[in-house]
Specification:
The complex is a heterodimer of chains A (252) and B (305).
Chain A: H1 2-19, E1 22-34, H2 43-61, E2 63-67, H3 81-102, E3 108-110, E4 123-126, H4 127-133, E5 139-146, H5 147-160, E6 166-167, E7 169-173, E8 179-184, E9 187-188, E10 194-200, H6 201-204, E11 218-225, H7 226-236, E12 239-240, E13 248-250
Parallel strand pairs in A: 2-12, 3-10, 7-13
Antiparallel strand pairs in A: 2-4, 3-6, 5-10, 5-11, 7-8, 8-9
Chain B: E1 7-11, E2 14-19, E3 23-27, E4 34-41, H1 64-77, E5 81-85, H2 94-99, H3 102-110, E6 115-116, H4 126-133, E7 140-141, E8 146-147, E9 160-165, E10 168-175, H5 185-188, E11 192-193, H6 196-210, E12 215-220, H7 235-241, E13 247-249, E14 261-264, E15 270-274, E16 282-292, E17 301-304
The chains are: A alpha/beta (252), B alpha/beta (305).
């Protein structure tokens, strides 16, 4: 009987202790709410953003240069005026930086046809033009690869049969797309020589099925956006007048 | 008490999941029903403006000024709300290129974000670029598996943060993705990447046992799941390999989920993994209901998603 009392007391004490209720997770509800135009714009937030937006619009549209004609990446067979322009700009803008940091020079440039996202229209050229041509945040990388891998790069170009932007590489193919001439900066390609190829980080990482950049001796990240090479060029020149040339041609 | 039974019932197009009850550690004196609302975004990528009407997939969607209205309305309905972001706040529109993330952080502060974690793109202007914008953020960053000791960010992030809302203790910790191979080394500098599973286990131990949290949330930028690389660490794999996490809010993979995913953790207990796509098109909302265990025996937690 005493024991029963003891247990009763013990039970009572425990009950008192737990009278402070324990939090219990009883239900979880999850959903996703889409932000649509049925939700009103918050006036205070909108007013805060507006000056920033206006400033960007103004800057994006301020005239930097003039384009003589309208250039599309699809004009031309194996090289296009627009592609040539973008590859040459990458060379002219990135090479001095690369040289000052490493003492080395870029040997050639390769970009991809698909990476040109708009045409360059006749008339005023602004920062917005650069954002349209190159909306992606890709940056310049310079990859050190041997001549043997340059051969794979050339194989890629002749197999794809399209105007991928190149600079400082001269490529002539016959009617069967066999190489007649392949030169970098006017010189024949040496198998064991190391070439510094400038491209984008996207392509370096295998974008557009470009698999010849790895393995490599070294890769240099310039932390310089492809788009900014264009903007820097637009700031330097008054007129843009690129041409289709003989850097990559087919003789029939 | 620890066992969570999984009973899935189809109910008017939603899944109702019943869990075995599990005791929570806070002892409180009030017995009212408490509701904690978790709102979350991920991979907003500087998308401050609503998409234009001509945009192919996202026409007229998103926009921070609309998100602000929605969040304000939810906070008015339930003041016990936390607003979280799972990283990649930066990069994607000229706002970032022009202002380096200043506007993103200022707006998130105005929307009263409580805490965020760091995504790989938040290093796009380098660790110095991220550091330079921190004064504009009135919220804190949590990351448990980036060791910033030898970087400028040292002491500027925390592994976790504990909030108390209506007597409910909520622990939020951050987990980041491996930066090597994803971000140029000169951008993340000497940031050390620590194992996400080990650090999550450490965080849940601290939050559960030392901090006595009632609710544990992981803000992750690991990515939802990699079907071509299923063993790679991801939110689903982290969920399966850990315990005591109630909710993983993910990012990185820009995954649009039809509803939050119910995953069994290492103790075979159910928990949630969620992600809401990208670009501020969606806001995730998870409501946690707590009641005091006065008249109840173990009758479980229902998950309605």
């Amino acid at each position: 009987m005493r024991f029963t009392h003891f247990f009763f007391l013990l039970y009572f004490l425990i009950f008192l202790n737990c009278k402070q209720d324990k939090l219990q997770l009883s239900k979880i509800e999850g959903k996703q709410i889409q932000i649509t135009d049925s939700i009103l714009v918050h006036p205070e937030i909108e007013a805060f953003v507006k000056p920033f937006r206006d400033n960007i619009q103004k800057d994006l549209d301020s005239v930097l240069a003039y384009s003589v004609d309208t250039y599309s990446k699809n004009d031309g067979h194996l090289n296009s005026a627009l592609g040539n322009f973008m590859a040459d700009v990458l060379y002219s803008e990135a090479n001095p930086i690369f040289k000052s940091r490493t003492g080395k020079e870029i040997d050639m440039v390769l970009l991809n046809h698909g990476g040109i996202r708009s045409s360059l229209n006749q008339g005023n050229v602004s920062k917005r033009t650069a954002f349209q041509l190159m909306p992606f945040e890709n940056s310049v990388v310079i990859v050190a690869i041997k001549g043997a891998q340059i051969d794979s790069l050339i194989d890629y170009l002749k197999r794809s049969k399209r105007a991928h932007p190149i600079s400082n590489l001269k490529l002539v193919v016959d009617k069967n797309f066999d190489v007649v001439e392949a030169k970098i900066k006017g010189k024949n390609i040496e198998q064991n020589y190391t070439y510094y190829v400038a491209t984008s980080d996207y392509l370096y990482n295998g974008g557009d099925r470009m698999r010849f950049f790895k393995p490599n001796d070294t890769v240099y990240y310039l932390n310089y956006k492809i788009r900014n090479t264009l903007i820097d060029k637009f700031n330097k020149v008054d007129t843009i007048n690129p041409v289709i040339d003989d850097r990559f041609i087919q003789i029939k | 008490m620890k066992r969570r039974n999984f009973i899935q019932q189809a109910s008017a197009g939603t899944a109702l999941v019943a869990l075995g009850s599990f005791g929570l550690q806070s002892f409180t004196s009030s017995s009212k029903l408490r509701k904690i609302t978790i709102l979350h975004t991920n991979d907003v990528h500087s998308h401050i403006d609503t998409f234009g009407p001509e945009d192919g997939r996202n026409a007229n969607k998103g926009g921070v000024a609309r998100r602000a209205t929605l969040i304000e309305a939810i906070r008015n309905e339930n003041p016990n709300t936390l607003l979280l972001d799972a990283g990649d706040i930066f990069q994607g529109t000229p706002y970032f290129n022009y202002y380096g993330g200043e506007l993103e952080f200022k707006l998130m502060s105005k929307l009263k974000y409580d805490v965020a974690t760091i995504g790989n793109h938040d290093f796009d202007n380098g660790i110095d670029g991220l550091f330079a914008q921190l004064p504009h953020a009135e919220f804190e960053f949590v990351t448990a598996n980036y060791d910033f000791k030898n970087t400028i960010l040292d002491t500027h992030t925390k592994p976790y943060k504990v909030f108390k809302k209506d007597g409910v203790k909520i622990g939020v910790f951050g987990i980041g993705i491996e930066l090597n191979g994803l971000v140029a080394p000169d951008l993340f500098k000497e940031t050390k990447y620590l194992d996400p599973i080990e650090m999550s286990q450490e965080m849940t131990r601290i939050l559960k046992i030392e901090e006595h949290c009632d609710l544990i949330i992981c803000l992750s930028h690991l990515g939802y799941y990699y079907k071509n690389n299923p063993d790679l660490i991801s939110d689903l794999n982290l969920a399966k390999s850990t315990k005591d996490i109630d909710l993983i809010i993910g990012g990185h993979t820009h995954t649009f989920l039809p509803k939050p995913t119910v995953v069994k953790n290492v103790n075979n207990e159910n928990m949630l993994v969620n992600q809401v796509g990208c670009y501020g098109i969606n806001l995730g909302r998870i409501d946690f209901y707590f009641d005091a265990n006065k008249n109840k025996t173990a009758n479980g937690t229902s998950i309605i998603v």
